[in-house]
Design brief:
This protein is about 25% helix and about 30% strand. By secondary structure, it is an alpha+beta fold. The chain starts with a helix and ends with a strand.
């Protein structure tokens, strides 16, 4: 019994020592949602092409200083948030001012309706990246 307990303790220490460095390497990013900046972190989850549920936009030719990706939802958003399982869209400025900082999905939709930019779904780019609460104001 004592040997079994010792083996279990050594095994637990090995798991903790291996898990510690992995957690320490987590890198955070940021995304705009409803005019606020939310922290995000990558997650190596399998997200098959075309199965993203939360709209997310990246910009192909933005010249705006500080332009981040724009998500429609974050934790607590009306309309739902599915844990950061992103349905990726590529945004390209066409007739609009590429230096415009886009910070909300509503703004993005209005710019698209005004033919200032084009939004194209990229199903092969869907991914998982959780959004953390406690957004920061812009500026």
């Amino acid at each position: 019994m004592r040997n079994l307990l010792l083996a279990a303790s050594v095994g637990a220490l090995a798991v903790v020592s291996l898990a510690g460095p992995v957690a320490a390497k987590r890198e955070f990013g940021a995304v705009y949602v409803d005019g606020a900046i939310y922290r995000v972190f990558g997650n190596k989850a399998n997200v098959p092409d075309g199965t993203g549920t939360d709209p997310f936009a990246t910009f192909t030719n933005s010249t705006a200083n500080g332009q981040l990706g724009v998500a429609e939802f974050a934790p607590g958003s009306a309309g739902g948030h599915h844990g950061g399982r992103w349905a990726v869209n590529r945004v390209t400025w066409t007739n609009g001012d590429a230096s415009t900082l886009v910070t909300s999905w509503t703004q993005l939709e209005q710019l698209e309706a005004d033919d200032q930019l084009v939004v194209v779904r990229d199903e092969a780019a869907d991914f998982r990246c959780p959004v953390l609460g406690d957004p920061q104001p812009i500026g």
